[in-house]
Design a protein that fits this description.
71% helix, mainly alpha
């Protein structure tokens, strides 16, 4: 009688015989459905936010694994994205993002703007499916590297890695400055002391209103640089995720700033003197 492979061996065979992008798309679809179902059942719409720093690590590691962790470029990409993901996960966790009740404050704002029906349409299209798809798309330079596995590292890889690490450090510094400011502000309020400033304008925030957002977007452009290095083409199809991520930051940050303006009228002066993303070293004058 024919021998049947153990189930574990069959699973490994299916994994290794399937195109890695097809497998990643399947995982993405499962995550999107899970996020949507959980959001509807719990009334909390930050389930994708909880995956934001984790899913790209898994996808990039998946592409490296499909090369047997034997490709230098893919291993480098997996390592860099891993550093990004661990740091961002820590920052999200300390702000309470993984608590059951933790939710991005912009979701209730969108509910107020769109109404119940409009918001549920947004959740069923953008909230769960689109954002999960985006988390896969930004890692597609790793798939391009997988297709070109064996191609030696070159100068573009070195530049992309150096830029990525510099931006990672910048984002970490900005997040830490913002965290310390908010902790000091809340502590002052608890003590009943006067709050000197409602929003941070010092440190890296002196040169950009959102230096952490700037670094986040630019890091994924650096990741795209590895696809350029692997393919030899400055423009290839894996750029789509990076472009869409940049566009998402444009819209989401404008919503963030609209909320800040409503809460803090002085924020308008900060907008006049400080660029939204790209840092400007020479400022016109300090905000009031």
């Amino acid at each position: 009688m024919p021998r049947h492979e153990p189930r574990a061996a069959q699973s490994v065979t299916i994994y290794t015989s399937t195109d890695p992008l097809q497998f990643a798309i399947g995982v993405c679809a499962v995550l999107a459905i899970a996020c949507w179902v959980l959001s509807v059942l719990s009334g909390n719409y930050s389930w994708v936010d909880r995956l934001w720093s984790i899913a790209p690590m898994l996808y990039t590691c998946h592409f490296a694994a499909r090369a047997g962790f034997a490709d230098a470029r893919l291993n480098l990409m997996a390592g860099l994205v891993g550093l990004w993901g661990v740091r961002l996960t820590y920052n999200f966790a300390r702000k309470g993002g993984y608590r059951w009740t933790g939710e991005d404050y912009r979701w209730p704002e969108l509910q107020r703007i769109l109404g119940p029906v409009g918001f549920q349409v947004l959740n069923a299209t953008f909230g769960a499916p689109y954002q999960n798809l985006l988390l896969l798309l930004i890692t597609l330079p790793a798939y391009v590297a997988w297709q070109a596995q064996g191609a030696p590292l070159n100068g573009i890889d070195a530049v992309a890695a150096a830029v990525f690490l510099g931006l990672l450090a910048g984002e970490a510094v900005a997040d830490e400055q913002q965290w310390r400011f908010q902790c000091a502000k809340q502590a002052a309020k608890v003590r009943g002391n006067a709050v000197q400033a409602e929003f941070v304008t010092t440190g890296l925030f002196r040169y950009s209103r959102h230096p952490n957002f700037f670094c986040e977007q630019a890091m994924w452009w650096a990741v795209y640089g590895f696809a350029v290095a692997a393919s030899g083409a400055w423009l290839n199809w894996s750029i789509v995720g990076t472009v869409l991520l940049t566009l998402l930051f444009q819209g989401s940050t404008r919503l963030t700033e609209a909320i800040s303006l409503r809460k803090y009228p002085a924020y308008r002066d900060y907008q006049r003197t400080t660029p939204m993303f790209v840092p400007r070293l020479l400022r016109r004058h300090d905000p009031l």
